[in-house]
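forwarding from the other thread:

> can someone predict this with alpha-D-galactopyranose?

sure thing
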Amino acid sequence: MSDVRNISAQSFKNRFKKNPAMQSYAPGRVNIIGEHTDYNGGFVLPCAIKYGTAVSACENGTDKMRIFAADIDGGDYDEFVISADIEKSRDKLWSNYLRGMTMLITKEYGARVKGLDVAISGDIPLGAGLSSSASLEVSFGCMVSNAFSLDIPLQKIALLGQAAEAYIGMKCGIMDQTISACGKRDHALCIDCRSLELTQVEVPSNLVIMVINSNVKHQLVGSEYNDRRESCEKAAAVMGVDLLRDATLEMLENARSKMDDESFRRARHVITEDKRVEDAVVAFRNGNLKELSRLMYASHCSMRDDFENSIPEIDALVEIISEALGDGKNAVRMTGGGFGGSVVAVVEPDDVEKVKAAVKAKYPAVSGREASIFETHACDGAGFVRL
Ligand code: GLA
């Protein structure tokens, strides 16, 4: 058993004075390429990482979810009555993900959803842009689905997770929950975010995925993310398409005089990023690091200049790593929603130490903080076991 599985089971015993009967787990994610394309109906290429959220549980014979969050402030507790209309908690923000999931599942499955005692533990660094909230939603959704034999398909659990985010106030896309639910070991997942068709793409065995956390916390439940989404919708409307997925650069150029410069640049990022994801899938399949580098670095520049969701610390980190890897090997970019969080690099095993040394030597001077670095392989998505 991994640490978080152990911690969640042990916390369950300590808190509820009995053994858990079931356990679920769902990972966080790192996005290789395809940023802010998901809610525009486009493509993304994330993979599941080695960190995630474990949920241990047992039926409790009541009409309440009783939940112990082992990692919050040394242990926090919340309980709420199961219904199709659950209020958000004002002070226990972590609980709102579970309130949202419970409410949405109950809306559809009614009285089949019953009370659970639950203990949760996760090891995804919070605010690092690695989807700790999606992993919590998916892990808990997987628990409720299996505990009551609801047989909710994994992609449906992902959609419920996305709806739970909207309940909280974040109008996110479908990427994070889908990869957390449907990831496959040693594969990245190309998601067509309009048709929801999934294509598993093997990660070339000669490449290592590195995640470099800037330790500048990002906070997506805020206006920046939703603002970006609005600009994209505005640009799509001007071009007469439902989603930017259906727009081309030519259409965008033709409509330039009819939109503000900001919407133009936001849309240019999305349209060019979609193409980069399609090309990256081919580069991945061919193990073509040179092409992948071109695409990932271009993706970063497009976020920095057009989408404007990067920050100086992240730009500095990307440049430090890009320089250490050199031309043709600089497969590095910010990953996730932006405004802080992490950088992803896809590197040859021999270059791992080079990246670590460069970040250690140069990042503190430009940011006033240390970065945290880990390597991961692509991992499996959500799972459930009876104990
Ligand atoms: C966050 C959202 C995703 C996606 C990314 C940006 O992680 O949850 O849906 O939009 O930002 O690519």
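The first strand starts at residue 22 and ends at 33. thats all i got for now
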